[in-house]
Design brief:
The protein is built from ten helices and nine strands. By secondary structure, it is an alpha/beta fold.
Length: 255
């Protein structure tokens, strides 16, 4: 996106935000990519071929049914993903969103499981797909937080009951956590003055839905994404650029 056009569009969004306090930021992989996190597939991805070395697609390897059948296989790929992102830190965009809490009532709905929004300082985060740093027992109430998986037995066993432990994330073919869905429903019923969709393809209805709701209620809706997505045609404003570039153009003057 040309700089002059970006600045003009960002200024228009900033003007529309004047006096608006309650903002929802919906974030996806494009935001964490600015922290250096790899994608599953594509250029630089961990899984650029159709199948994993186990002869199944990554979506099958990281699925609920596979975890129940062969937890060691699922954990192999979970650990591989964790190793690839180990040491990464929240991006400038994560920190900018967190800083906005000083001026706005900010809610973050994220598809990412890296925990970067909380690490950057955001306090109201709905991590709809979970957090890979949180582990829980599949049998008892044991839970723990780990910053990495270094030295961990795979699959890990619960120190209290010897059952298999898993990361508190939503695997493929698993239902979304009811607690997080209830939080999202509550926040949407409260309503938002503005909704930002950042770095997500918006393919899931619970990700695209808040944007569509904002459009129907004539609230400000903004997408920051270099690519076309499922909501690009419905949002009021489209910024075809990266997360930090778009956010800083809009918000930096007021911070």
């Amino acid at each position: 996106m040309e700089e002059q056009l970006l600045r003009a569009t960002a200024e228009r969004v900033a003007e529309r935000l004047a006096g608006r306090k309650r903002i929802l930021f919906i974030t996806g992989a494009g935001l964490s990519a600015e922290s250096g996190l790899p994608t599953y597939r594509g250029i630089g991805g961990l899984y650029s071929t159709a199948d994993t070395e186990h002869g199944v697609p990554i979506e099958v390897a990281l699925s609920g049914p596979m975890f129940r059948q062969k937890p060691e296989l699922t954990w192999h790929h979970i650990a591989r993903l964790e190793e690839a992102v180990r040491g990464a830190k929240p991006s400038e965009a994560h920190h900018l969103i967190a800083r906005l809490e000083a001026r706005h009532d900010v809610v973050v709905l994220t598809q990412n499981v890296d925990g970067f929004h909380r690490a950057a300082g955001s306090s109201n985060v709905i991590d709809i797909h979970g957090d890979c740093h949180l582990l829980l027992c599949t049998r008892c109430d044991f839970r723990e937080r780990r910053e990495d998986y270094v030295g961990m037995q795979l699959p890990p066993l619960c120190p209290e009951c010897d059952a298999i432990v898993r990361p508190e994330v939503v695997l493929f073919e698993e239902a979304l956590p009811e607690v997080q869905l209830a939080r999202l429903d509550h926040e949407l019923r409260e309503g938002f003055d503005a909704v930002f969709s950042i770095g997500t393809t918006s393919l899931f209805p619970y990700i695209a839905g808040p944007v569509v709701q904002a459009v129907r209620r004539r609230r400000l809706s903004v997408e920051i994404n270099p690519d076309r997505t499922a909501v690009s045609e419905v949002v009021e404003v489209k910024l075809a650029c990266g997360a930090h570039r778009g956010l800083s153009a809009i918000f930096e003057p007021q911070l």
